[in-house]
């Protein structure tokens, strides 16, 4: 593994993601200058799906040109680009094209016409970007699993088999457009914690080029344990290590693709300390592909109806001034560039149930979750292993695991 990469999810300082409607290349370049000044090496960018594909058979060429302009501007500043396709869902808002809703209501994961429309869109974006040297690859969409089950108010219900077929089709479309790039899918933590979620840990850890995890301590972790606690400050590392239980490849890379310091659970005065602890603990995970912080710039107070926490999550203010969290991330990136980050294997593995219907044991308050952090507090540096692999000596050896414990053995 190369040294972990450091990047940021790019939230434009002017107009948020609505900037695609009246794209301003000068504003984008100024934003990217402020990101590059932190010493980061990549951005994750979000074309809004209904703006780019307003009709199933219309993918707007001008919108694609704007995306290419952003990618080229990033390259000029030494930044690589990962592109999310199906947006989908961002910061509490859903962005779905009219040809999938109301009078044209069709299931996002199972309707043949919708699936082919999505595949055409992802293939088109990937193909347009394929020759850019700074193009990392496609992420299918941002936390697309939230559309497939509750608590979404109007879910597009699908079975595990149906979501698996959908993932295969979408990843294949990305590969058709840009062969050999790093194409992946990314789910929010219900994939790991919610018993009835049809997107599963096995899919997350086996489908696509890398495993992506999104870590948010407002999921019950900070509420239960507090902001300055082992579970809160190690939650991102926990998700990285939890994902490895399901991976077929013992050295599969894991991308911490989203993580942030959400107020008020993490007050602004504590955000830098939380960031420093979260990043240091994630860097103690072997096979970490990189850390991509959420997000680059604050949401403008001129925009209405965002949850309060969304307005202040940026590393930089709306006028592009770095906050203390930005300085923490910049120092961490510089330290990793200066010397190899090679964490030792995590030799103690906590047993995780194979059954997806038992995932809640891995969530806040669950037996696996609580045992993992008791081990962490004792300095054990735990990882996880599926119950079906707990006696597989070859698998354990490949991962450097020398001790296996069950949750009820952890006191």
Automatic annotation (TrEMBL):
It comes from Streptomyces hundungensis. This is Glycoside hydrolase family 5 domain-containing protein. It comes from the Bacteria.
